[in-house]
């Protein structure tokens, strides 16, 4: 990536851009979840997570291209627009989260090897596994120590 993205707090005016990137990134990352990126799952993101989590946006040229949602030191979600993946934006957001909180925790679907590999490269280690009752898929709980 030639330039670092601007990382800033999410604002209500970002909702349309963020929902569009969340939907496309979720569908790409979670093809094993029926209805991912739409319907009830989109409603939950819009009405719960965007309002209750501490959300950060990465933008390029004034356009939101990634979303990081945090609850305390837990990364509740990291979504990068598919056209922008592989350019260091996700790494920049994880580094931002680590600068804010130090140690980090997250859950990633076992069936999402791309995200699991990304988090391992970012220094996260598996702590445990659990069944996600909402989707019926296994989640891996990962932890990263403070640098």
Brief account:
By secondary structure, the chain is an alpha+beta fold. It is 35% helix and 32% strand. It is built from four helices and seven strands, in the order βααβββαβαββ.
CA radius of gyration is: 14 Å
What is the total number of structural domains? 1
How many β-strand runs? 7
Dominant shape: globular
Distance between the termini: 24 Å
Order of helices and strands: EHHEEEHEHEE
> Could you name the CATH class?
Alpha Beta
* Strand order within the widest beta sheet: 1-2-3-4-5-7-6
CATH topology: Aminopeptidase
Uncertain residue ranges:
none
User: Helical amount among residues, as a percent range?
Assistant: 25-40%
Second-tier CATH architecture: 3-Layer(aba) Sandwich
Number of helices: 4
Helix/strand/pairing class, anyone?
alpha+beta
Mean of pLDDT: 93
Largest sheet: 7 strands, mixed
Beta-strand share of residues? 25-35%
CATH superfamily: Gcn5-related N-acetyltransferase (GNAT)
């Amino acid at each position: 990536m030639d330039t670092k993205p601007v990382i800033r707090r999410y604002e209500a005016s970002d909702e349309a851009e963020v929902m569009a990137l969340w939907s496309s990134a979720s569908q790409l990352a979670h093809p094993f979840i029926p209805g991912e990126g739409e319907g009830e799952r989109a409603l939950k993101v819009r009405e719960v997570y965007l309002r209750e989590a501490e959300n950060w946006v990465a933008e390029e040229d004034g356009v939101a291209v990634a979303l990081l949602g945090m609850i305390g030191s837990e990364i509740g979600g990291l979504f990068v627009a598919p056209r922008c993946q592989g350019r260091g934006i996700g790494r920049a957001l994880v580094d931002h989260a680590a600068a804010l909180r130090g140690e980090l925790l997250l859950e990633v679907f076992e069936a999402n090897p791309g995200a699991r590999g990304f988090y391992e490269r970012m220094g996260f280690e598996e702590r445990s596994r659990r069944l996600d009752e909402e989707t019926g898929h296994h989640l891996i709980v990962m932890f990263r120590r403070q640098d």
